[in-house]
Design goal:
Helices cover 27% and strands 28% of the residues. It is of the alpha/beta class and 394 residues long. The strands form 4 sheets. Strands 12-15-14-13-16-17 form a 6-stranded antiparallel barrel. Helix 5 (97-113) runs antiparallel to helix 6 and helix 5 (97-113) crosses helix 9. The longest helix has 20 residues, at 120-139.
Amino acid sequence: MTTETAAWPEGRVNSLGFAKPPHETRVVAAMSGGVDSSVVAAMLKAEGYDVIGITLQLYDHGAAIEKKGACCAGQDIHDARNVSDAIGIPHYVLDYESRFREQVMEDFADTYLSGSTPIPCIRCNQTVKFADLLATAKELGADCLATGHYIRRSDGPEGPELHRAHDASRDQSYFLFATTRAQLDFLRFPLGSLPKSEVRELAEKFGLQVAAKPDSQDICFVPDGSYAKVVEKLRPGSGRGGEIVHLDGRVLGQHEGVIHYTIGQRRGLGVATGDPLFVVKIDAPARRVIVGPREALMTRGLLLEELNWLGQGSLEEAAGNGAPVLIRVRSTRPPVPGRLGYEDGAPAVFFDAPEEGVARGQAAVLYDPEGSTRILGGGFIARPLPADERVAAA
């Protein structure tokens, strides 16, 4: 037994929640090459943890590097390697391209073709990062996997809980609702209590070359911002045209494929009636884009799929009791009040006041309404429940 181990008081936990000294705690740091994950690795190394840096090669470097800011471009792998060398930790690059294509890119294309609007960053966290990478970290003998996400994990009476980041402008809870309790047991988020400005300052303090690197904004496999081009590439011939139809049944024009449209879209419809029109529904099997007035975008509730429940008790109990929740249907929107319940025998959420422009395939994330920061879970929107019966019938 070393002097340091002997001096570690019984029952004391380190900053990551383990009852042993940092140098006996192995941490795999997921390193994207950006400032956030680089600071996580540097912080943990400075605290004395046994840190291993891992970067995932998710998409062809040559294609992605043409777009600055893409999260998995070749430059990012280079930056992650340089940071690891600078702070003195081993670093590995894992080729996850085939997994990423199958679990994220293929799903992205198929979701668009079904008339839904996908969120590939959620799917990536749910599969490649918090399933595949997490399993690899365990194989390396790690005690936990640490990431640069702005979200907080805390231990509650029923197990680990997920909470919004202290810095509301950086909070990433919308993209992490699918994280399970089993995954939370193994995950750590050291930046959840820090503002972005302090993270930049820490990067400077540690002398990291990425201290001033801009944040990634783009989906890494959409280097030119054209979702339709990516879908066409993955699913050749998918851009089959069809009709643009008004809610009242009038055929207003033709389109070149449902992949070019999303719920709530107003611009680029290619039709004019004198009144503002919005995409209110996409009927992919019939290749119809249905448009109507803004009020037709209102939604009274949602049926969800791939539900993940992190609240107390069971989801079925909460739905049966009509439990109040806050509901977020877009990452850029604040949560709004609603309640859990049942629709057609399945758990559903209902808004206290109708919400506008809810798209199938997006996520609905549920929060504790009692002044808490806790994420209760959520799911992908399987079917919006329109407030306008004409939309339901269209």
